[in-house]
Amino acid sequence: MAQGKLRLAQKACKEILRRNPGDFDALHLSGVLALRSGDGRSAMTLFDRAVKAQPMDAVVWSNRGSALQSLGHLEDAVASYETALALQPGFVEAHFNRATILRRLQRPEQALAGFNRVIALDARNTDAYLCRCALLQDLERHMEALASVDHVLAIAGDQVPALFLRARSLRSLGRLEEALTSYDRALAAGGELAEILGNRGNLLNELNRLDAAIESYDRALALQPDDAQIHCNKAVALLLQGEFERGWAQFEWRRKRYLEPAGVPASSLAEVPGKTVLVRAEQGFGDSLQFCRYLPLLERAGAQVIFEVQPPLLRLMRSLEGSVRVLPQDGERPASDLTVPLLSLPLLFNTSLANLPAPGRYLYSDASDRQRWEQRLGERTRPRVGLVWAGSQVQLNNRRVSLADLAACLPAGIDYVSLQKDLSQADAELLRSRSDLRSFADELHDFSDTAALCDCLDLVVSIDTGVAHLSGALGKPTWVLLPFNPDWRWLLERTDSPWYPSLRLLRQARIGDWRPVLEELAAGLLARFPGARLA
Question: Which run of H or of E encompasses 366?
């Protein structure tokens, strides 16, 4: 309703209510008009007066629910919609609005039942199918979500929201090429939107089509230049290509995305001589282990360096060269002249593949801890190989190999030591069944413990986790099992790492297919340790 007509209608209702304050139609319409104009509080007052005038009218109860929703009173809104439905069980709009709020209230099964009820009443209600699809995606029921969105496309043809949701489900199902086709169809249907182009870029990144991914990100940023997440995703693609100079600068957008400002930022090395510089750890353990190598360089540039790090890394980081002061991340923040997030140090040092600092070893385990582990391990009669097969539970599944599959490929004649800290019940049971596969999960209290155990081994085999970075920082021979689309720091195609001279990279050739990687691992172990044999 145009603003002029809205004001005229409000004026007419006001005049009716002046003459007859209990007029139901005028109260109801006035409430609707107030709600449309964004005045939820006035709308609520008017609807309350209307339901007193006609308490059996389902429509006014439903509109009252919308007013409550606009005010953020979600539970009360649900109750109002339910009153409307008790009066009129087939009221489609009330079912739909109630289900939408239930989803916001994190009551997914009730919300799903609500959307199903809408569809049962109105089989061509595409909004209900789309909401049902999004909800099923939240529940990770992607096959059902795909069926729901495909129904919309069958009813209404190519619609941008439907194609976008379809691409998301296909991506979650691992059907990446089909997902890419859906994104392209959405763009062809008029969806030149930053969100679609950004997600399309992410998908192309997963397929290792990095030039195409960057082009998609650039199209998205032309529409939404200040989207920090898209800038960060573009940075990842550039870094994965080895374009460090462009990538580091682009990566600074993460500061706007998730880093809280703290102190005066260091913007160049020229600022640091004679200054106290606070370096703050960010992201995961692996990031801290990889980039702490820059702290002695910062000290050599003339800074007094304070490193604020995750507590499980505290003891180990005190082995860094020089006089870097290491403090726990959760403690009181010390005074400093300048501050810099840890992953901004490569930019500060203008790091490229040609000048990347790659010392053979820059972290050291404690001698008494090594002695304790040697005693725990007992007499060395066979080669010792450490194993890590799963990343953090919050990591994507591509950083995870089944322990059963890994154990099945391991040659005999080697003592295997689990370096896995967190064990599932199934993994713990499998470890107990293998005398050649020992676990000390309960004794690995921090990374210093793990470092000392690593130093007692001949080789570490790890999925892409913090332990892979730890072992590389210790200069330990390490084989890293990488998915088809690896983290940016491992680059593409290489079997070595410019960051860690002691690493060998074993890569998937196809998405999700670990079998050839495990076969390569088994062959490598047999070749490296002459006493090993096929089990």
Answer: none
Domain extent, residue 497, equals: 367-528
The pLDDT of residue 394: 45
Q: Cβ–Cβ contacts within 10 Å for residue 315, how many?
A: 18
Assess if residue 357 is contained within a domain: no
Same-domain pairing of 311 and 223:
no
Residues 460 and 482 in one domain: yes
Q: Rounded to whole angstroms, what are the CA distances from 131 to 79, 159, 163, 171?
A: 21, 14, 13, 18
- Answer yes or no: are the C-beta atoms of 362 and 319 closer than 8 Å: no
pLDDT at residue 442 tops 60? yes
**378 assigned to some structural domain:** yes
Distances (CA, A) of 473 to 151, 299, 361, 515: 53, 19, 5, 28
Q: Cβ(214)–Cβ(201) under 8 Å?
A: yes
Residue 426: inside a domain = yes
pLDDT in tens, 147-172: 999 999 999 999 999 999 999 999 99
- Dump pLDDT digits (tens) for 41-79: 988 888 888 889 899 999 999 999 999 999 999 999 999
Secondary structure of 399-467 in HEC code, one letter for each residue: HECCHHHHHHHCCECCEEEECCCCCCHHHHHHHHCCCCEEECHHHCCCHHHHHHHHCCCCEEEEECCHH
Cα distance between residue 153 and residue 166, in whole Å: 10
Are residues 456 and 505 part of one domain?
A: yes
Contact, 458 vs 525, CB < 8 A? no
Are 442 and 309 part of one and the same domain?
no
Contact 24, 50 (CB under 8 A): yes
CATH code where residue 203 lies = 1.25.40.10
Mean pLDDT of 389-413: 83
Report the alpha-carbon distance of residue 278 to residue 270 in Å, rounded: 16
Same domain, 521 and 490: yes
Averaged confidence pLDDT in the chain: 92
Mean pLDDT of 1-25: 66
Q: Say if pTM beats, i.e. exceeds, 0.85.
A: yes
Structure tokens at 478: 């390490």
pLDDT, one tens digit per residue, over 461-501 is 999 999 999 999 999 999 999 999 999 999 999 999 999 99
SS3 79: helix
Q: How far apart are CA 383 and CA 458, in angstroms?
A: 6
- Nearest-angstrom CA–CA distance, 239 and 330: 30
Of 258, 293, 314, the one marking the end of a domain is 258
